[in-house]
Amino acid sequence: MSENLTMKAVGLYRYLPIEAADSLVDVVVPKPSPSGRDLLVEVKAVSVNPADAKVRQPKAAVEAEPRILGWDAAGIVAEAGPACTLFKPGDEVYYAGSIARPGANSEFHLVDERIVGPKPVTLDFAEAAALPLTSITAWEALVDRLRVSPLPGGNRDKTILIIGAAGGVGSMAVQLARYLGFTVIGTASRPESSAWVTELGAAHVINHYEEFVPQLAALGFSSVDYILCCNDTDLHWANMASAIAPQGGICAIVPSVQPVNLALLHRKSVTFAWELMFTRPAFETPDMAEQHKLLARLADWIDAGHLRTTLTRRLGPMNAASLKQAHALIESGRTIGKIALDAGHPQS
């Protein structure tokens, strides 16, 4: 196969602990071609999320062809499928992709244009790649699941507690909630993570390893109107049920291991919802283009200075060694913000 019909990528054949030598491997695979509404994107940067590590975690399955991970990318449109109307070759874009398709840890990547946004012009590719998955998750959790006002300043009389506020999703949720007018209370457990959450716009920070209600009371709050849990749902469930206001709303992004005891919410008539940003692209729902609109809106808000990238660490070049390092950092559970890899560039 000639060179122009292949591309470099990072994939896996077996699902192994990250310290295993072949947990992620450098591979050469066929270069795809776009059809329909697909874009072929020349990947310039990717970022790594807990979703990447969860997919890679040990299990018995063995892949006959390398499975390529990576669900956050920024790059340049190389080719556009015949049905594309939103983008053309040469456009700079960013997106999270679909969990049902190969990931973006490759030189080129196919993605449906309906879940792609125009890259913020004020950000470089790594800064942009840090944003899509977490921003889509945070926005959908707030607006689509909790049904808060999507207007800047539209929730000025409301409070929201964001659990795990220093992580990837939490870092974007804090900014979005602040911009939408909420009084934001974040949770963190270390001085450096607390400082980061405050820097992003949280009015208050409490410790998620301690009971919520006494800490909220010390700040002058008897309860909170909304809760977004970006951390262990099982661990925080009882605390959330105690802290939520009557007729409030809770949204969680981490699947529970134990059955969720919804009875704890009954007396307060509290609404509970799950959020997974892959739902729209994986099921190709009729409204999947909402993610394109969301990313375009986000780019405008970033370029206007209302929001910022959550990139805190760059690695590179994009190869198996760098991605293994990123996965190990994610699995440590102590990352703040996001980790991105610049394709072809050394770490800094």
Description:
The chain is 28% helix and 28% strand. The protein contains 10 helices and 16 strands. Helix 3 packs across helix 4 and helix 3 packs across helix 9. It folds into 2 domains: 193 residues, Medium-chain alcohol dehydrogenases, catalytic domain (Quinone Oxidoreductase, Chain A, domain 1, Alpha-Beta Complex); 138 residues, Rossmann fold (3-Layer(aba) Sandwich). Strands 3, 5, 6, 7, 8, 15 and 16 form a 7-stranded mixed sheet that branches. With 348 residues, the chain is of the alpha/beta class. The longest helix is centred in the middle third of the chain and has 14 residues. This is Zinc-type alcohol dehydrogenase-like protein. It is found in: Cytoplasm. Keywords: Cytoplasm, Metal-binding, NADP, Oxidoreductase, RNA-binding, Zinc. Pfam families: ADH_N, ADH_zinc_N_2. Homotetramer.
Short description:
The chain has 10 helices and 16 strands.
